[in-house]
Amino acid sequence: MSKFQGVIVPIVTPFNRDDAQSINYEAGEQLVEKIIAAGADGIFTFGSNGEFFVCTPEEKIAFSKFVIEKVNGRVPVYVGTGACSTHEAIEMSKQAEAIGADALSVINPYFMGISDNQLKNYFTMVAESVKIPVMLYNIPKCTGKNIAPEVVAELAKIDNVKGVKDSSGNLENLQGYIDAAKGNDVDVLVGSDGKISAAHAMGAAGAVAGTANLITEVVVNLWKALEAGDAAEAERLQAEIEPIRDVLHLGFTPQTLKRSLELAGYQVGPARFPVTEVAEGIDEKCIAMLDHYGIAHK
What we know:
Helix 3 (86-98) runs parallel beside helix 4 (116-128) and helix 12 crosses helix 13. This protein is an alpha/beta fold and 298 residues long. The protein has helices at 25-37, 57-71, 86-98, 116-128, 140-143, 149-155, 171-181, 196-202, 216-228, 231-239, 242-248, 255-263, 282-293; strands spanning 6-10, 42-45, 77-80, 103-107, 134-138, 161-166, 187-190, 206-208. This is Dihydrodipicolinate synthase family protein.
């Protein structure tokens, strides 16, 4: 049974509006229940939408443990454990395995322009430190480095490297991953919500879709339509993701997504500093988008 399939939701990390912007566990549970009820195939803590880059290792492990306990085996839970430091990524990965994560998502080191050999070494050391499946996470616009398909082909030979998520938005790169994964029992997932249908047609096994925090049913039904070969319904639902994507582009990840969730009654709070509250006039656009989807708002 493959570990990385279907619609995986990179859950936002809910914060309180207190001085510490502490994690709001109650809102976290509310969001988990919403996502599972809507039929998602997995939940992923501390991806880009989970603001891993502004959370401490202790917060990441504590909130991930809470999510794992609340999910209680209903869907797999993936934990983001990548870091600039290989040592930190290994420590995080071991702790995530210990709290019961089903699999790990590991982003490549960012800020530093490391070589392909250094990158291979990083992923190899992290993967070999645990027994659970590992998904490589490629998001070059944020890390400054694309994980080359040739690197994926090498890493795919490691026993527990079982997935690669591509958020490059480059379908040629995605095809390179699909080719590299062939024969290696590695699933390729798309991280660009506007390209889910194209990725499915190329052979992607699933989507890690930030929009599914809010419009879970739309994304889940899109994947079902693609799997069922219902081209007309898939085309309709793929287009139906655009209104929320238009709003998400009005702010930093996940600033406007969290504001939209908040307006829809999920107390996920703001994005963490240095990202500030949404700009003036954004609420109206979020509300118009919620109206489009028929989502009640305050």
